[in-house]
Design brief:
6 strands; alpha/beta
């Protein structure tokens, strides 16, 4: 019998990323790589190629900052209502296979289950409404409430100050390697990467951290 990836007797808190961990990242990738550039082109009288040429440097410059995840920032920069555009595509929002089974299993054990996301409130609320997942989490924490994104070392002390937890007895799962590095550097003992966050893309081989393709691969969960 294979050795379980997680020693559940050592876990009190389960901290989960949203996009690419619980939810399929295909929605976000389609939204930012296709839908926004197309609408930006229409709004400003550009070809799609011209739109991408303007937007890609802005995307690149914002990566790793809170602006990267801020819908207000992108609405101001593009002169588009980003929340409204996200709502247009809400039918594309979906769970990764097995996510709800995992959430239910964690809840059944009585462990604290937190959603820890970089998503702007306008985004995470839309997604939890659409998927019906609000009631699965004890807390939803956005990096916008902490003043820094999860890949920034300042995020984790801010999270701890607002919502105390034992980092040595916490499990954190995310699809972003920079975020996982920051969490591990902070002292979270159990970190796991998601290797297949986007169902429309190929899975990734990850050697730096323990990795699974889906949360359900961390089942069964011992009480």
């Amino acid at each position: 019998m294979a050795t379980p990836l997680i020693d559940w007797s050592a876990i009190d808190h389960v901290l989960l990323d949203m996009d690419g961990t619980v939810l399929d990242l295909a929605y976000d990738n389609h939204f930012w790589l296709h839908h926004v550039p197309q609408r930006y082109a229409e709004r400003h009288g550009l070809t799609l190629e011209e739109s991408l040429a303007r937007l890609q440097p802005e995307f690149h410059a914002a990566q790793g900052t809170l602006n990267w995840y801020c819908l207000d920032y992108w609405s101001a920069l593009t002169e588009l209502d980003i929340v409204a555009l996200k709502t247009e595509l809400k039918h594309r929002i979906g769970l990764l296979p097995g996510s709800e089974d995992f959430l239910n299993a964690v809840r059944a054990t009585g462990r604290d289950l937190w959603l820890v996301t970089n998503a702007h409130p306008g985004s995470w609320r839309l997604k939890l409404d659409e998927t019906g997942l609000h009631g699965h989490f004890d807390r939803v924490i956005s990096s916008h409430d902490c003043g820094a994104p999860k890949e920034d070392p300042r995020f984790w002390p801010a999270l701890q100050a607002q919502h105390a937890f034992d980092a040595q007895r916490a499990l954190f799962v995310d699809d972003s390697l920079p975020v996982l590095r920051a969490a591990q550097n902070y002292g979270i003992r159990h970190v796991v990467a998601i290797g297949h966050p986007d169902s429309s893309a190929s899975r990734r081989d990850i050697a730096e951290f323990p990795a699974v393709d889906r949360l359900a691969q961390l089942l069964p969960i011992a009480a």
